[in-house]
């Protein structure tokens, strides 16, 4: 077969198909393959008809259709399927050819695969691709990491097919070594979980607390989308609230209240636990999905457990303004926590992350794209060593301005019995982070009392540990000090 394709894409599900069409539309020739061969034929005869897209029925045929260095991108389910594909395609590749994983792989797997593929003389890229079906087709946010030597070969394609900011900047740049790209995409998805949960809590307060109709809520979200909350998720929420089916019924009211998840939010929280970072908001967002899945239990419990009636008797217009401020402040906390996690992981993994550049990559194409991200880029451009977004002058002022509203919303939600786990977690984190002193001194005393775990003292240098014989029966032997 003549070597004419610039890149190969394996996997003809929603993301794969649309990404292929995107790449081809930018002037590249694409080879494609799918394990189920009839999907290849249907694609070539359908959406790909008449385009510079080559359908292949074997991986050998796929590889032989490519110009060198060969670039093979898989858009398949994360996990064992990726390892199986690597084993399948590797024997047909030559040194310096490139394997690209564009799925949502666990970053630990990507670290391992980068090393294993490198031992075969091949290059590896683990890249996040965000934007869903529309983003894949029209321009996603792309977050590549892996073998640095592979970047220059793939850059012309990735930076042409990705989304671009209004200034023309590509929403794709090299993230870092090893699994840096997939880790950043994982955090992106965790923040996405948080953003969605915050919006859902706000929606529930407006619906059950304020008694607003779908049309009234749609108007609120439309207005918010023109202000500080301008974002893709706010925009689509307004569309969803106004959508009706053929019978005129609101589709949103027909959807069962149980949320699904594919694991990236959970991975984000696990990574936070492993690095000791307080990712409380995203953690609550993940657990809120878990709680929603207990539909049968919740229905039964609703008939047994008592609580207040969610009826708000105050100024609805003022409350809507308070909700906007609370949502904005909580969103700031979500990103602050996400960036803290990326910083901790970068130190642990030896990555050199460009935090302002990451915000730029998220400005367009991806699910969490918003005007807000420009302020994050500006914060890290002003101070590359910024330890927390809350310290940046812009975000400090924004939270201070929103704080009274934030506290009113949290208080009223508790009084009305409307759950707001993510918004309340964000406020608790803010209050904890700004606290000069927390009650962990009592916690350490308790640990030392029952387990001789020792403690540090305020009048002694850090790193010096003490044990008290609290009962008079414990003796002077103390447990060793370590951090898990």
Which terms summarize this structure?
8 strands; globular; 484 residues; alpha/beta; 19 helices; single chain; 7% strand; eight-stranded mixed β-sheet
Question: Can you describe what's shown?
Answer:
The chain is α/β, with parallel strands linked by helices. The chain has 19 helices and eight strands. The chain has an eight-stranded mixed beta sheet with strand order 3-2-1-4-5-6-7-8, with helices on both faces. The N and C termini lie far apart (55 Å).
- Major β-sheet profile: 8 strands, mixed
Task: Count the DSSP helices.
Answer: 19
- Strand segment tally: 8
Straight-line distance between termini: 55 Å
Say what oligomer this is: single chain
User: Strand sequence of the main sheet, in spatial order?
Assistant: 3-2-1-4-5-6-7-8
- Show unreliable segments: none
Q: How much is the average pLDDT?
A: 94
Which shape, going by the Cα principal axes?
globular
The percent range for helix content is 40-55%
Radius of gyration: 25 Å
Strand-residue proportion:
5-15%
Give the SSE string.
EHEHEHEHEHEHEHEHHHHHHHHHHHH
Secondary-structure class? alpha/beta
